[in-house]
Amino acid sequence: MSEWWLLLLPLAAASGWWAAKRGGSGSGGVTSGAAPDPDFLRGLNYLLNEQPDKAIDVFLRLAEVDGETVETHLALGSLFRRRGEADRAIRIHQSLVARPNLDSEQRGYALYELGQDYMRAGLFDRAETLFRELVEMKLHRERALVGLREIYQQEKDWVKCLEVAKELGSITGEPMSTEIAHYHCELAEEALKTGDGATAEGHLRDAQAADRRCVRATVLQAQMAMARGDARAATAIYHRVAGQGPEFLPDILPDLMEAYRRCGREDVRQQLRHLYRNHPSPALMLILSDLIEQEEGDEAAVAFLIKYASEYADITGLERLLELEGRRPDGDPRARSVQRAVLTVLRHLRGRQPEYQCEYCGFVARRLHWQCPSCKGWGTIKPLTPQPLDAVGQDMPLRRIGRLRSARRVERMRSA
After folding, report:
1. Higher pLDDT, 166 or 33
2. Would you list the domain boundaries of the chain?
């Protein structure tokens, strides 16, 4: 059966009911023997011949738009939009908005749906106008503000994003601190590109005032300290990341090591061991194994890596261990061939392994995004950390269920 038939079946049913009612008695009853309206049959024929535009024209003329059929038209337009047929969705919703007999609630709903159509078609200026009108009319304000925020995010107008986020927070009662902090970080990065350090520092202070656990703001402050040559201040700021979001330590390790080098610190290994004990990660493991190899030799590094591989299900540690073992000059040739084959497979697998994942929708990536490209959540993408071997397989169902629930929550937010 044609998918157009499935798409337009609700409207066809409603139109058929009205066509039958029109053919009824003058007193308003439906005559059991009333002949179907010819226009209705013609519309069905267009459907069967996959001529949706002509079918829409027929059904829009045929259906009486009142409290019982407005919902049908709204649903039909929404279906077209979800199929990517924004032009057809716009036609349907524009016809509704033009009707003089809609009450304010119905008109507001039609305006909102038309705004969504414009957004899907990339007509952001028209969508913005409709959403602004809804906010002023106090109709579907929360949805309209969410739409405005999405527009301004795509246009990277972070000042307007801040304004909308604060207004949205006053309506919902939720502070939206995470979003506000990231908008300030975006403005800080823009200021840094133009060399306006003072403005950038102000935005970073505002970001941390909104969300004291904003890792992004802390990292930017450390980078600014390094840029002005204050490596000691940068080191102290980088250490704050361990308290805010220890899972982000691998991302700052190269800059932290550079800050240590500029400071001339001699306790680098001790500092790294302290971080590793509290927040083990593949990146820390690799740096420590290199330092141990340089200072104590291969055997000590291998012992460290064997302990790591016995505690964590991590391909990176196993790969590094096999690399060191392969350097032994007295190894058995057959065993070394096996090691090389296994190492090749591990490198291939690690190259395909994601390094980050969104906490809400499960989107995976090879690099850090402060805004998830999938669900558009801010600060939801986190580095993947190795799982302890004694926990492998025990919490996987719970984690999967948690991701599904989070994905459903995001979907509800989108459709709200």
Report:
1. 166
2. 175-244, 357-407
Q: pLDDT at position 378, please?
A: 95
**Long-range contacts of residues 121-128, Cβ cutoff 8 Å, at least 24 apart:** 121/86, 121/87, 121/90, 124/151, 124/154, 124/155, 127/151
Return all residues near 383 (Cβ < 8 A) that are at least 6 apart.
247, 248, 250, 251, 281, 355, 356, 368
Q: Is the pTM of this model over 0.85?
A: no
Helix H or strand E segment including 312: strand 312-313
Residues near 190 by Cβ (< 8 Å), separated by ≥ 6?
Answer: 158
Closest CA to 181 of 198, 197, 158: 158
Following DSSP, what letter does each residue of 323-389 receive, concatenated?
Answer: HHHTT-TT--HHHHHHHHHHHHHHHHHHHHS--EEETTT--EESS--SB-TTT--BS-EEE--PEEG
Res 79: pLDDT: 74
Fold of 175-244: 1.25.40
**Region of residue 379 (phi > 0: left; psi between -120 and 50: alpha; otherwise: beta):** left
| Strand, helix or coil for residue 310 | helix
Average per-residue pLDDT in the chain?
81
Residues near 342 by beta carbon (within 8 Å), at least 6 away in sequence: 322
Q: With 90 as the cut, is the pLDDT of residue 197 above it? A: yes
Which segments within 263-304 are labelled E, that is strand? none
Per-residue pLDDT tens over the stretch 325-358 = 777 766 677 777 888 888 888 888 888 888 899 9
